[in-house]
């Protein structure tokens, strides 16, 4: 039985208020008991099920008494579509900025419940171990809207670019004060940034392309600070429908991601670059709402 239908069948009353589920105490108890019943499957969506972290997550979830099914998707929009349609109970593949853009663009109200990690975005410069002497260089950056804005903010944090206005989530080239900046940027396809690096040009490179190009992620000369406010949009999280935001079983399952075995596997997958993040659901929702509001402007 699909987990969503199970909840619908056992909840005695559901009142939609402020995007969350409100139930009588009796129905909540019934929901939690039924959700934990043997044989019920919780479906989880992702885009990288082949990673070691997911194998560890499945094993640890089983130890914790959960029966889960991990479904892999080949693109980044389908996991949210499947969640909204009730084909999934939760997913874990996206950061809060992506979620905010998805909600705004599709009129949905998906919500984060448990943070997982931040994968820093880094600057690489072949045969260099710092940004000393980088002034005057042209830096290759990913040209897609999400990564371009983040790359610009990374270079701003490094003191290499000066923006006309601070605090922009997705700055563009038009937001750069070139006269006050120390470098220029060249936006190119993200998949081509390792090639630019190989030719000796400084480049902002996504983690997913580092491994393919054989670039050691620990050799970056600068990366964004995962503890900074600028990095908050890039916190990854387990996401559910608004009606399941308070579901205790889904919260407990998502917390399995923070067990030692899963975190060890995450570190192996990212070669030690991922940074574990723990934020309350309220903090995650506040960040999401802030992002959605700023993106609407």
TrEMBL record:
One of its GO terms (cellular component) is membrane. SUPFAM superfamilies: Periplasmic binding protein-like II. Transmembrane segments: none annotated. It is found in: Membrane. It is a lipid-anchor. Residues 1-22 form the signal peptide. It comes from the Bacteria. Its main location: membrane. InterPro entries: Lipoprotein_NlpA. PROSITE patterns: PROKAR_LIPOPROTEIN (PS51257). Keywords: Lipoprotein, Membrane, Palmitate, Signal. Belongs to the NlpA lipoprotein family. This is Methionine ABC transporter substrate-binding protein. It comes from Corynebacterium phocae. The lineage of its organism: Bacteria, Bacillati, Actinomycetota, Actinomycetes, Mycobacteriales.
